[in-house]
Amino acid sequence: MYAIIETGGKQYVVEAGDKIKVEKLDAKEGDNVTFDKVLFVSGDEPKIGAPFVDGAKVEGKVLAQGKNKKVIVYKYKSKKNERKKNGHRQPYTLVEISGIN
Question: Which interval of the chain is the signal sequence (predicted)?
Fold first, then answer.
């Protein structure tokens, strides 16, 4: 059984036991989180939301808070001697999916 959830403006296909990196959530390590925005739930009788499935929830546990690898942003304007190098590390939350209700 799997579900499609939406969090942080992105959609994820999840099953029980999956570990996913989502946009940073306001939760500490070890906290339980609930995703209410469930778009689809599979099973004997698949349920498709319009836009969300009523009463469906996906529960998970926060494993870690961290930052992704650094992405280099380099801006350059020719003939102007203008250069700017910048780095960015996007924060994320690692969540282990514990169950789909």
Answer: none
What does each C-alpha distance from 89 to 29, 53, 66, 70, 74 come to in angstroms? 20, 34, 9, 5, 15
Task: Yes or no: say if 21 and 15 are a contact pair by the CB < 8 Å rule.
Answer: no
**Percent of the chain's residues with pLDDT above 90:** 99
When the pLDDT of each residue in the chain is averaged and rounded to a whole number, the result is 97
Cα–Cα distances (Å) from 39 to 55, 57, 82, in that order, read 11, 10, 47
Helix intervals (H) in 1-101: none
Structure tokens at 19: 């570990």
Q: Which amino acid is located at 51 in the chain?
A: P
Question: How many angstroms separate the CA atoms of 35 and 67, rounded?
Answer: 21
